[in-house]
Input
Amino acid sequence: WDGMHHGLDKEQISRYSRQIILHSFGVQAQARLCRGSVLIIGAGGLGSPAALYLAAAGVGRLGIVDRDVVELSNIHRQVIHKEASVGVHKALSAAEACRALNSSILVETYLEGLKPDNAVELISEYDVIVDASDNAPTRYLISDACCVARRPLVSGAAIGTDGQLTVYCHGEDGPCYRCLFPESPAAGNCARCVDAGVLGVVPGVIGTLQALEAVKLLSGVGDTLSRRLLAIDCAAGRFHSVKLRAKSPACIACGTSPTITAATLPSYDYAAFTGQAAANDA
Amino acid sequence: WDGMHHGLDKEQISRYSRQIILHSFGVQAQARLCRGSVLIIGAGGLGSPAALYLAAAGVGRLGIVDRDVVELSNIHRQVIHKEASVGVHKALSAAEACRALNSSILVETYLEGLKPDNAVELISEYDVIVDASDNAPTRYLISDACCVARRPLVSGAAIGTDGQLTVYCHGEDGPCYRCLFPESPAAGNCARCVDAGVLGVVPGVIGTLQALEAVKLLSGVGDTLSRRLLAIDCAAGRFHSVKLRAKSPACIACGTSPTITAATLPSYDYAAFTGQAAANDA
Amino acid sequence: MELLFGNQKVVEADVPQQSGEQQLTVAAAMAWARDNLLTERPELFMKGSSVRPGVLVLVNDTDWELCGELEAAVADGDRVTFISTLHGG
Amino acid sequence: MELLFGNQKVVEADVPQQSGEQQLTVAAAMAWARDNLLTERPELFMKGSSVRPGVLVLVNDTDWELCGELEAAVADGDRVTFISTLHGG
Ligand SMILES: [Zn+2]
Ligand SMILES: [Zn+2]
Output
């Protein structure tokens, strides 16, 4: 029993007892969760299960970023919200659900969305970042800011019956989003759930797996998906794990001479780079 | 647009619009969900996300079976319950959350748990069965009753950082649980979450995937995991899909001359067969 | 790449060896796929002689960047996969 | 089978061919694993000469029932996996 100096109180020991008695996890890993913080960007299809499971697991401080309000057509996949929350700000609705699940954690909300001029500062305040956004400009912005702030990024995406999951900006050689995709796809190639549709449970699977990766990063237990991409075909029931390249020395965000820095990022034009305006109605 | 004769009203069309516009799903698949029913046995770690996602997806009638009350040590993985529900019956707490998500569906609760003398009748009232239980005798009972009632069974399990998922009793040649494991493991080999511990998000991943399989079975869209077992090692981030045997002609539950029938099942001694008393605190 | 291959996600194909070439490369396999498998809008798949931005090319489940990109050799039984980055959430 | 193999989940092993036998079988590989790899309580792994109830044996990700069970042939590079059925939830 490595129960010394873990800093957990009696209620925490009881609440998290099923994780604490797990040999491969234990009280020290639980204490790291309780001391840790995660920023979830997007309180939609991916952010819903990610926020619920991270709050339940006992992550000490959760930040939730969104700028939209709940609509009835969101709820088929955004299960953290309720019918009664239609019209309520998504970050507030999600935060309320997290607090109802676990009043012992701190939940902070950011109602303006992530922008180039607040991204690095906001991301620097958290240990692990979860990209639960729904559009290309925000995905590049999050990845760049994680490079600048040196924060590991759990990236998930879902559309139709397909999902993807990986960890960027982690460890010695983990790539960032730009290392993989230095050039943005043409705007016409970027399907969003609003336009193309999505089977509700698909972002549910990916968002839950994002919570898992965040737990592993914070607790130090298990192997994370750095340099591995999980691609899920939910219709076929196929799970595909692929090996990714290392970070690129030439990358303008995480390479040896980055041009995207704390000083330059706020004025980077993500809309022009991707040909799309940011939206965050995940 | 195959929108004729689907029987969905205007609010349903709006609520499920993101699934309806999805080409591979569409309005007829949504209508089959709305007309369909799923019985979820266990409102714990697996049943929590399964119930949330099936309610959100619009399954017309959900049944929730459990006989325990919510405890604080459940909530790290049983995210359908709230702190305020500690002491409340799990099936009632879960049903309330489902109704708050979707008031247009019917949610029924069964507070006595599944027993040999009510299993076949209860299971016969639903189209698809989700095994979200947590012990060997209940797992054999559910599988047997699904054989007798001829209902497809989505079976999930989780312990520690490992999870498993498959579909039993489905199609021409799909096996049942007994086809795979005709003899029950010795009681000492059967770890339960209460005893061995479980990382909370692990049943979250499996339960969400159980909802996905139930959606595929009800809607007729996609390939289900009949004759395939998905084994997940969440610590390593490994997903393993294995090919299973066909149903056995000699199986006493689903074979050509079954000895477990509607007449004999109620008096079958599951505690003696498995060497364990049933519990259902999933 | 679902749309591009007529809703079939896994396409097994015998890519003919081109005369005069020693070894089939990913580049040649891609060009062949574009000309023989694509049912619509090939510009969503390739840009010039390489793949369009936002598509990850894999040879036997490994990022082609680790195998030599366009010049990566492919042999009988090898699997070349194209994965589009997704943005939805 | 985590516990049984000293918390290592994937064990790569060179199972020696027994003299006088034509072809290594799953049965022989299992007996070898029990005698050489198990760190504790072999009775959790085997029962008699077969596997204990509740364990699924796979040869290259396929249920051994489809390959001939104990008599299934295994060759160099083949992967034999043991999966315990789980009951938790
Ligand atoms: Zn980079
Ligand atoms: Zn059977």
Observations:
- The mean pLDDT of chain A is 94.
- Residues A 175-176, 178-179, 247-248, 251, 253-254 surround zinc ion (ligand 1) (CB under 6 Å).
- The longest helix of chain A spans residues 201-219.
- The first strand of chain A starts at residue 37 and ends at 41.
